[in-house]
Design brief:
By secondary structure, the protein is α+β, with helices and mostly antiparallel strands. It has one domain. It has one helix and five strands. A five-stranded antiparallel beta sheet has the order 1-2-3-4-5, covered by helices on one side. Strand 4 and strand 5 form a beta hairpin. The two termini are 22 Å apart.
Length: 105
């Protein structure tokens, strides 16, 4: 299990924490578009999913969305592995925190 630090964000949905590289939980049927959603101040969401769902050729996407503008995200970060995903989530959080001038604990 991965323990994430969401820098003051509030987790709304989490099916990602139980997935780790090389675990039985990391199967193609667990890789879907809706894996994690974290809410930040100023109506900003960090959203993580696998695109396209269940496709071995897909990739993790970490999206930063403001005001529910899903069609025009503020930023998108990509990762193919859980290890890279952790780095991209950190990059997305940096993007969010810098934009908000918000630094959590």
């Amino acid at each position: 299990m991965i323990v994430w630090d969401f820098k003051g964000g509030r987790v709304l949905y989490d099916e990602l924490s139980s997935v780790t590289e090389g675990s039985a939980a990391l199967t193609w049927d667990s890789l879907k578009e809706d894996m994690l959603q974290v809410e930040y101040p100023e109506n900003i969401l960090l959203d993580v999913g696998w695109y396209p769902s269940f496709d071995p050729e897909g990739t993790f996407q970490v999206r930063v969305v403001k005001d529910f503008q899903w069609d025009v995200p503020e930023a998108i970060f990509f990762a193919k592995t859980i290890g890279d995903l952790a780095l991209e989530i950190a990059r997305a959080q940096g993007f969010i925190c810098e934009g908000l001038k918000f630094y959590g604990p």
